[in-house]
Amino acid sequence: MTRQAASYRERRVLLAGDAAHVHSPVGGQGLNIGVQDAVNLGWKLAQVVHGTSPESLLDTYQAERHPIGARVLKLTMAQTALNRGDERTTALRETMSDLLSMDEPRKRYAATMSGLDIRYDLGEGHPLLGRRVPDLDLVTASGPQRVFTLLHQALPVLLNLGEPGALDIARWADRVQRVDARYAGGWELPVLGMIAAPCAVLIRPDGHVAWVGDGTDRGLRDALATWFGPPNHEKPTD
Ligand SMILES: Cc1cc2nc3c(=O)[nH]c(=O)nc-3n(C[C@H](O)[C@H](O)[C@H](O)COP(=O)(O)OP(=O)(O)OC[C@H]3O[C@@H](n4cnc5c(N)ncnc54)[C@H](O)[C@@H]3O)c2cc1C
Asked: Is residue 97 in some structural domain?
C-alpha cells in the first residue's frame, strides 16, 4: 500500500506519521519520517496554542512535510519495483547496484534514505538555509558544547559565531536563546560537501536553519518574527 493524506490538517485535526503516509517498510524510513513530522509540528503547535505565533504558522507544517512524505512514497515504490523477481527487474537492479558503487550516486542516495539532505524551501540564500544544522563541536564561555545539546530545551537558538554580543535579539529574549560561540572546523553537509562558514545561524527547535548571518543582522528580525512571533512590544494585548 502506498497512500498519503491530501491534507495534513483539517481545522483542529493534524495528521503525522503513518496516519499521514503509509508505504512499504523497505528502506526503513516510516518511523523516521513520522518522528520528523512530529518534531516539525510540535514547536509550531505549542507557539500557536500559547498565542506566540499566528495560526498561519501551522500551514508551514503541510508545506514542509507533505513533499517529504511524497518523496518517501516515490522512493519506496521504486524499491518495491526493484525487488520483483523477473529477469528484466533483476537486470535493472544490477544496473542500479553498479550506479550505487560510484561515490556521487551513493552519497546522494544515502543522504535521501537518511533524510539528511532535507531542505525546506525557506527561500534563496546560503546553502544552510532550510537544512538541518550539523552537530558541530563549539567552544562557548561555559566550555565545549555540541550544537544538538543546545537544542535540548526545544527552544530556538541564535548561534553567534562572530563578535560576542553582536546580534541584538532583546525583543525575542523570552523565546530565543542566544549563544555566543567559536567554531574552528569546516562546515560539511551531506551531498553538498564543504560550504562557506556562516557568521551566525538562527536554528529552529527542529534543528533546521531559519536564517544565516553574513556578518550583519540583515533579515534577522524578519526571520525571528516569521518563525517565533512578533517582537515583544508589538505583541497584541488581547
Ligand atoms: C514490517 C515493518 C518494518 C518496519 N521497519 C521500519 C524501519 O526499519 N525503520 C523505520 O523507520 N520504520 C519502519 N517501519 C515503519 C514504522 O513501524 C511506522 O512508520 C511507525 O510505527 C508509525 O508510527 P505511528 O506512531 O505513526 O503509527 P503506529 O505505530 O501505527 O501507532 C498508531 C497507534 O495508534 C493506535 N490506535 C489506532 N486507532 C486507535 C484508536 N481509535 N484509539 C486509540 N489508539 C488507536 C494503534 O494501536 C497504534 O498503537 C516498519 C513497518 C513495518 C510494518
From this structure: no
